[in-house]
Amino acid sequence: MSDLTKLSAAEIAGLVAGGETSAVEVTQAHLDRIAAVEDRVHAFLHVDTEGALAAARALDERRAAGAELGPLAGVPVAVKDVLTTKGVPTTVGSKILEGWRPPYDSTIVQRLRDAGTVMLGKTNMDEFAMGSSTEYSAYGPTHNPWDLSRIPGGSGGGSAAALAAYEAPLAIGSDTGGSIRQPGAVTGTVGAKPTYGGTSRYGLVAFSSSLDTPGPCARTVLDAALLHQVIGGHDPRDSTSIPQPVPDVVGAARLGATGDLTGVKLGVVTEFTGEGAEPGVMAAFRESVEALAKLGAEIVEISCPHFKYALPAYYLIAPSECSSNLARFDGVRFGLRVGDDGNRSLEEVMSLTREAGFGPEVKRRIMIGTYALSSGYYDAYYGQAQKVRTLITRDFTSAFEQVDALISPTTPFVAFPIGARTADPYQMYLADLFTIPTNLYGGPAISVPCGLSDGLPVGLQIMAPTMADDRMYRVAAALESTVGTFTPPAL
Ligand code: GLN
User: What's the pTM?
Assistant: First the structure.
């Protein structure tokens, strides 16, 4: 493996800025690595070799001309296939968008380009970001670099696996119920879900619009913060974008790296430290809590009594919103069209297209959502779930009157074998038991590697109040400074 692929994004940017390497060299090293391991990992749905090298050359020319470079200039980044990329295929892991080349860039991708990063390609994901293992991708699963027979988490398993396999130093994910944090946890990488509205949804293919949050994935906390800073902030093209600057996440990560948490009060969520998690996960979590205490943090237990209703509420709200959002995939506007032979009605063509284009999990969600929103059931299901959402939000606000941040394991279990949970949807849904409350509330949360269980990575989740994203980076960086980073066996 070329050494360049082992460096952090901050280190790569430093070398490029100092002229010790070029963006082209860095990009080529990662493309070579992708060529060497992709047949085993399958993190990417599309590698944009030409586009990446062209962007790298352009950056090197700007540098040679003396242009001022941003903090991530010349650093390669892998982008989850849920974000539109101008002229570059965007499938959302679905057959229904196979071959679609969007006519525009999402805001996140535009900001990545403006920052001089180099987009390597688009990463694999569960279809329409629905899933926790990347097994629901219409293009085949991604394999966890820690153990190729296991899942890399989902829905953003491709982004997390690309990091763990050293195919990219940075990646973008999207988190509706845990799809950044859970893949981070099970691949030993860092995944942050920003405050809802803190990162733009413009050009993010919608799953559940009141929950969807794009965010950074990296191998170190500082790298995640640097990426967060580049992609975050107000976007007038997203009506729910918060018109405030990004909290100082980079400063907070640097502060945390000093390893001092004096004056920081952390609440361990009682409901998430009981029987729901594997013993190995709980052991790693408990050790990390002790480590945080040694760094000066005050640790208390906090009960959030409504968190136990988060999963059922989410599985009404998210499918409801998806049933509406996915109505646009009708065979007329984008991608796949089936049965348009001149003899069939528009409705028949739409129906055949959707039948052929959507996979079983997406269809299940559309059916659940349509039912939950139907007249006569609306109040009983969707309305009830929204009330639960309010109660969960109140749990968070009352907790944050007592502590600076909440902590829990990120996921109840480590990476499971491919195929182990596809037979029963509920078993798959359990993967997000601990991550979903944050989405319903809208606050930020990060997963940071905290240890191993049976040789597989365990993540610790830090949840902070809305627009206090900096807080979670401080705690995460402090933990990282004591437990270190985790390297999978060589591929
Ligand atoms: N696993 C959850 C789901 O299937 C969360 C997905 C996500 O965050 N995109 O809905």
Answer: 0.98
